[in-house]
């Protein structure tokens, strides 16, 4: 560990804190339909879109209508993406002449991008045409992120409104988020990446003769535009197979820093939006702080773990002071790689700038646990906020009773219906993560995809299903996805997305209808250090304990074995 | 049995020996899955326990080794179930004992059913036919005479009688019941001591107050309360999560090339799911109701008890709650030219024979301030002139000397508006009224002496109680029929947060609705028929037992002692109930961390010896580790039964402080205690060679 490493991490955290309020304020203006700068420019376009699509934009929706809209929108998106991938050979902008994407892969990829997971069972440059990249994948990068933010906004409205029957209009939210938030920021960030050296072209690959005289094909394409939204929308699906470790996706230390900032930008801003909309920004900061606490612990542990050398490699005479550089880019080093790995799994981004599989067991444990907790540490755009609110509801329910009142959050009673929906959402993650892992590690097709044996192979499987269910999309690496995996991971992603979205919208609907009891000194405050500690504790104990046996058989036993000199 | 004695006897013996034996028997009876089913967490435990027992029997039949360990685990799993049932049975047992004593009072009585006379009226002297109480219908009219038991609940329509209600209230002093007004309700099973009353029956047999009371204390009608349902869902959800966590382990273990027995998996599962709170949840609820009953308050539903914990606004009647019922003389205010002593002397003379509390307080005040001793009326040759509604004055005539005290207007009218000092008396009187007092003018032979300041006396300690309530986050509102000026003065003196002056039943109802519209929960108590709408509207409506039938029907609690100040205690009891639930839930879930550290290494160390490092408690063997965790999990239920029954102590401090304290005790404590507990049990188990 070095001072510069810690400074990088500290600078990152400070920038995140600094961005939270201004972005939160902007989100509020956009989502509440208040006047803002871009609205004056794109307002006619927005209204034109509504007219073309026949959307009654001023009309509010109940939670059922809202949820139906989300599901329908995603279903149509799935069909469109699937079709584009299957027929890419017949469509333009395919300079490399890539053939149709195999059915199971197309299915897996469509779900992956529609659910904002961006699990990639393929190498982008060798599978997807430019049209597929731009029209199928990049479009989903925008709209799947917009869906997350829209759902979060609807949930926040549920908490903020009193005695209301509606939680917003899904179409309006989707249009506004895409038009005023995702697109403009992406344009700016993409230009920044171009400046840093990221290619942005519609040409195919370039053939070059290297200094050694060998010929090499260098893949190019519209990388910068996809890169921006890949980070901002916590998508994580890279243009190239090696994702942000590729020098064209992430050329410099500065581009790397901006990439990690983009991953957290909207997730943290949503906590602020939450505070603003419920009327007390402190409530948002409390949620932010619980997330930040878990983030800082995670990044600290990862950095500490990776700064240690693998004893087996040190035994070969490599300077142990270098730490574990296996699978890391020298232009980023240990700290920036540890930071990236933590951030990308805290948020459900899944982009990688180093190979998580090559992390030491404890270093790899942190990204795994981050995903198992359900991506609530900042989390995916939108998904992080509504995910953490589920844990806040559990925390309030358990501890709220201890002040001698029936539990309430922000003045709203938490009753049987909310608890039922919360548990439904919380249940589905371990079901998918553990259930599919259990099947995969004892069946032939499941096992055949694993590249490693022993605990490390186990971790590969566990990581993959955790990544899918948490809609993260990062891979531990080493997996050779086959139809079984593509199918199972696809199911995992759908469950992890919609079996959370539908219950949280149901909660939002129920909460919106409730009256608000005014806070008194008898009310349990949800904006102080105690609540922050409580929510973090509940996230770790309720969200994490379930996975302890699995973790013991994966990274933990691997770590203990490594200390005794055996590697997998 | 008075209230005091009943309370001390029950708090003394939380686990009374005479209740334990039936409770043990009941614990076995409750193993019936049809009963167990109501409690999902323990029901799941029962299923897996039966499963392991079947496996054990199978293993024993086929002569497998390790049976000793399996038998012990099995035993402790059954103990876990029995302990849970025992907790509930003990909680119910106390109510059952009380119900039995109530049932004894429900003796077979004969009612004297009156027949209507020609005019359709019922009179005492009319004809009656004896009819067994169970055959009485609603609307029948019965005569109850001295020595008779009142056959069923009803309303007095004629007569007045003293009634012994000790069977219901535990209060041995008889109460007066009369027709009309707010003292007209009678309860079946109580006994008329003197005189007679004619009662119209208002409750059918089986739904009388006594029947409902028996059902309530027995817990026969116990419905899960809303919060209990929500908590049960949470616990069931956690149980499901741990089913996934445990059910997937065999396949993980198979991958790792190891093997794991069903018994160990069941042990892990049972220790992980929230059995502690699952086992104690219903006992907590029953104990909460029981605490109210011991407090002589009957809650008609558990919902009301929960609501009591949530109350934001307390409506309190001024008279009897905030002030003691009567006004007391506080000060003598003479007009210029008259000394205080002169005024006191005359006022005392005028009050010598006045038996009203106000009159007596004047005599006492004069004695205290000026050592003027009470004199004998006879010795003075004085003749008492009593108060009448016409004169609105009282006083004495000593020979030709006429001393009068009374309402200022009346006294001024009697002496003539032009009399000396009239303007001063008026000024003093206005001043007193502004301070919330009642002025009483005194005149001696047509000469105005001054004014006696009568004051509502605020109960001692009430100011502190209100401050306490404020810290709890509860707003108090005083309800009074007084004018706003008087009300404001008393409100200021008593420290109440707000007041409603010149309150009519409609104004009361409006106030409740207004508070509720702001999302607040309102509690109030009342006794009169005109209180009924407000009682029904309030979230917690406590009806006084002395009140009318309408009031008792409208409220969701009945205070058998008819003591309005109890509202404050009721809120505390509600809070205590919720706190106990929260504390034990948090404790139960925090326990899981230690249990994992006991069982995970034990489970996996056979094929991954490295995982022995996780055995941070240094438990002796894998078997002893698993056994200790299971034993701890069972014993903690027994250990926590007293806490579940007594409730977590509630102190009126702010929520933030309360939460910090409870989180420290039950959250952090819940994390640490099992580490010590399991280690201790492990040492015991190994030392006596059980594993």
UniProtKB/TrEMBL annotation, chain A:
InterPro entries: KdpA
UniProt topology in membrane: Multi-pass membrane protein
Keyword Acyltransferase: no
UniProt-listed HAMAP family: KdpA
Matches recorded under PANTHER family: POTASSIUM-TRANSPORTING ATPASE A CHAIN, POTASSIUM-TRANSPORTING ATPASE POTASSIUM-BINDING SUBUNIT
Record family assignment: Belongs to the KdpA family.
NCBIfam families, alphabetized: kdpA (TIGR00680)
Protein's UniProt name: Potassium-transporting ATPase potassium-binding subunit
Species assigned in the record: Gluconacetobacter liquefaciens (Acetobacter liquefaciens)
From TrEMBL, chain B:
Entry binding sites for ATP: 354, 358, 387-394, 405
Cellular compartments per GO CC: plasma membrane
Topology in the lipid bilayer: Multi-pass membrane protein
InterPro entries xrefs: ATPase_P-typ_cyto_dom_N, ATPase_P-typ_P_site, ATPase_P-typ_TM_dom_sf, ATPase_P-typ_transduc_dom_A_sf, ATPase_P-type_domA, HAD-like_sf, HAD_sf, P-type_ATPase_bsu_IA
Signal peptide: none
Enzyme class, broadest EC rank: translocase
Keyword Cell inner membrane assigned: no
Chain residues that bind Mg(2+): 527, 531
Reaction(s) this enzyme catalyzes, per UniProt: K(+)(out) + ATP + H2O = K(+)(in) + ADP + phosphate + H(+)
Segments traversing the membrane: 39-57, 69-87, 229-253, 259-284, 593-612, 624-643, 663-681
Similarity annotation: Belongs to the cation transport ATPase (P-type) (TC 3.A.3) family. Type IA subfamily.
Subunit-structure text: The system is composed of three essential subunits: KdpA, KdpB and KdpC.
The protein's name in its UniProt record: Potassium-transporting ATPase ATP-binding subunit
Organism field: Gluconacetobacter liquefaciens (Acetobacter liquefaciens)
Gene: kdpB
């Amino acid at each position: 560990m070095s001072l510069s490493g810690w400074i990088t991490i500290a600078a990152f955290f400070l920038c995140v804190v600094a961005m939270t309020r201004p972005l939160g304020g902007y989100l509020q203006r956009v989502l509440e339909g208040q006047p803002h700068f871009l609205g004056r420019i794109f307002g006619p376009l927005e209204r034109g879109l509504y007219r073309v699509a026949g959307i009654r934009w001023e009309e509010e929706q109940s939670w059922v209508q809202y949820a139906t809209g989300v599901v329908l929108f995603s279903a149509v998106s799935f069909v469109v993406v699937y079709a584009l991938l299957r027929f890419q050979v017949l469509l333009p902008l395919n300079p490399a002449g890539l053939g149709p994407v195999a059915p199971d892969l197309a299915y897996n990829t469509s779900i992956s991008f529609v659910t904002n997971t961006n699990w990639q069972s393929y190498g982008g440059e060798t599978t997807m045409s430019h049209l597929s990249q731009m029209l199928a994948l990049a479009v989903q990068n925008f709209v799947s992120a917009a869906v997350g933010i829209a759902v979060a906004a609807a949930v926040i409205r549920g908490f903020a409104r009193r005695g209301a029957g509606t939680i917003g209009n899904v179409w309006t939210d989707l249009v506004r988020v895409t038009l005023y938030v995702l697109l403009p920021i992406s344009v700016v960030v993409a230009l920044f990446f171009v400046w840093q050296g990221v290619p942005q072209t519609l040409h195919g690959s370039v053939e070059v003769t290297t200094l050694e005289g060998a010929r090499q094909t260098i893949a190019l394409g519209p990388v910068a535009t996809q890169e921006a939204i890949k980070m901002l929308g916590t998508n994580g699906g890279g243009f190239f197979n090696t994702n942000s470790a590729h020098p064209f996706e992430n050329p410099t230390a500065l581009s790397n820093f901006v990439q990690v900032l983009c991953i957290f930008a909207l997730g943290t801003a949503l906590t602020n939006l939450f505070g603003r909309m419920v009327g007390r920004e402190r409530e948002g900061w409390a949620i932010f702080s619980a997330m930040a606490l878990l983030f800082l612990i995670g990044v600290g542990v990862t950095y500490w773990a990776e700064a240690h050398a693998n004893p087996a490699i040190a035994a070969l005479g490599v300077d142990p002071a270098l730490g574990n550089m296996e699978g890391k880019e020298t232009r980023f080093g240990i700290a920036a790689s540890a930071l990236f790995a933590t951030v990308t799994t805290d948020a459900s981004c899944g982009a990688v700038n180093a190979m998580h599989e090559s992390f030491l067991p404890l270093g790899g444990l942190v990204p795994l646990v981050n995903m198992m907790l359900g991506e609530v540490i900042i989390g995916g755009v939108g998904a992080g906020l509504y995910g953490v609110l589920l844990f806040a509801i559990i925390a309030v329910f358990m501890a709220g009773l201890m002040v001698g009142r029936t539990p309430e959050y922000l003045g709203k009673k938490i009753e049987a219906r909310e608890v039922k929906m919360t548990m439904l959402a919380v249940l589905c993650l371990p079901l998918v993560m553990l259930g599919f892992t259990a099947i995969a590690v004892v069946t032939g097709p499941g096992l055949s995809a694993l590249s490693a044996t022993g605990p490390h192979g186990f971790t590969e499987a566990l990581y993959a299903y955790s990544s899918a269910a948490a809609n993260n999309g990062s891979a531990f690496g080493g997996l050779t996805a086959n139809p079984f995996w593509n199918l199972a991971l696809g199911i995992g992603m759908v469950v992890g997305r919609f079996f959370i979205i539908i219950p949280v919208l149901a909660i939002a609907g129920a909460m919106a209808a409730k009256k608000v009891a005014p806070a008194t000194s008898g009310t349990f405050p949800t904006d102080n250090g105690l609540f922050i500690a409580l929510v973090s504790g509940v996230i770790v104990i309720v969200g994490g304990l379930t996975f302890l046996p699995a973790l013991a058989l994966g990274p933990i036993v691997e770590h203990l074995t490594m200390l005794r000199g055996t590697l997998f | 049995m008075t209230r005091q004695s009943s309370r001390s006897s029950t708090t003394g013996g939380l686990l009374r020996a005479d209740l334990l034996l039936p409770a043990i028997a009941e614990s076995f009876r409750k193993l019936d899955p049809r009963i167990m089913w109501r409690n999902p967490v323990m029901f799941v435990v029962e299923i897996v326990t039966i499963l392991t027992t079947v496996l054990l029997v199978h293993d024993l039949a086929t002569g497998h080794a390790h049976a000793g360990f399996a038998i012990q685990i099995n035993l402790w799993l059954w103990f876990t179930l029995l302990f849970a049932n025992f907790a509930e049975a003990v909680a119910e047992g106390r109510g059952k004992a009380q119900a039995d004593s109530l049932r004894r009072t429900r003796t077979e009585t004969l009612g004297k059913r009156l027949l209507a006379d020609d005019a359709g009226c019922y009179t005492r002297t009319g004809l009656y036919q004896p009819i067994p109480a169970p055959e009485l219908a609603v609307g029948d009219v019965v005569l109850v005479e001295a020595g008779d038991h009142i056959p069923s609940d009803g309303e007095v329509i004629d007569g007045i009688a003293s009634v012994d209600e000790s069977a219901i209230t535990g209060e041995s002093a008889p109460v007066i019941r009369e027709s009309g007004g707010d003292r007209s309700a009678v309860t079946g099973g109580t006994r008329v001591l003197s005189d007679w009353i004619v009662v119209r029956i208002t409750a059918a047999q089986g739904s009388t107050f006594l029947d409902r009371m028996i059902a309530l204390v027995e817990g026969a009608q116990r419905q899960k309360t809303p919060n209990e349902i929500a908590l049960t869902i949470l616990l069931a959800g956690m149980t499901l999560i741990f089913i996934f966590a445990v059910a997937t382990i065999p396949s993980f273990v198979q991958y790792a090339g190891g093997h794991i027995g069903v018994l160990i998996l069941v042990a892990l599962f049972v220790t992980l799911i929230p059995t502690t709170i699952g086992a104690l949840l219903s006992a907590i609820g029953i104990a909460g109701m029981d605490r109210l009953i011991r407090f002589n308050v009957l809650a008609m539903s558990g919902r009301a008890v929960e609501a009591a914990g949530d109350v934001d606004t307390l409506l309190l009647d001024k008279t009897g709650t905030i002030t003691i019922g009567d006004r007391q003389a506080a000060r003598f205010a003479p007009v210029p030219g008259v000394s205080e002593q002169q005024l006191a002397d005359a006022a005392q003379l005028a009050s010598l024979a006045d038996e009203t509390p106000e009159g007596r307080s004047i005599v006492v005040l004069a004695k205290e301030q000026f050592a003027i001793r009470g004199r004998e009326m006879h010795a003075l040759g004085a003749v008492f002139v009593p108060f009448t509604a016409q004169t609105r004055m009282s006083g004495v005539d000593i020979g030709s000397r006429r001393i009068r005290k009374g309402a200022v207007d009346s006294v001024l009218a009697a002496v003539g508006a032009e009399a000396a000092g009239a303007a001063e008396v008026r000024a003093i009187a206005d001043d007193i009224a502004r301070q919330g007092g009642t002025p009483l003018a005194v005149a001696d032979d047509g000469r105005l002496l001054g004014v006696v300041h009568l004051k509502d006396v605020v109960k001692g300690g009430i100011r502190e109680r209100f401050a306490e309530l404020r810290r709890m986050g509860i707003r108090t509102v005083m309800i009074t029929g007084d004018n706003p000026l008087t009300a404001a003065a008393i409100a200021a003196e008593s420290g109440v947060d707000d007041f409603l002056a010149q309150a009519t039943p409609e104004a009361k109802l409006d106030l409740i609705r207004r508070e509720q519209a702001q999302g607040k929960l309102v509690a109030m108590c009342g006794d009169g028929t005109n209180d009924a709408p407000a009682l029904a509207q309030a979230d917690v409506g406590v009806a006084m037992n002395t009140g009318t039938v309408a009031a008792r029907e409208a409220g969701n609690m009945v205070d058998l002692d008819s003591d309005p100040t109890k509202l404050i205690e009721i809120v505390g009891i509600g809070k205590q109930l919720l706190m106990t639930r929260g504390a034990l839930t948090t404790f139960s879930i925090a326990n899981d961390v230690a249990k994992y550290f006991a069982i995970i290494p034990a489970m996996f160390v056979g094929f991954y010896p490295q995982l022995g490092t996780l055995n941070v408690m240094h438990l002796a063997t894998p078997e002893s580790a698993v056994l200790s965790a299971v034993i701890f999990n069972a014993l903690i239920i027994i250990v926590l039964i007293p806490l579940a029954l007594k409730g977590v102590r509630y102190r009126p401090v702010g929520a933030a402080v309360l939460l910090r304290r409870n989180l420290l005790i039950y959250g952090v404590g819940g994390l640490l205690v099992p580490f010590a507990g399991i280690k201790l049990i492990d040492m015991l188990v190994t030392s006596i060679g059980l594993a």
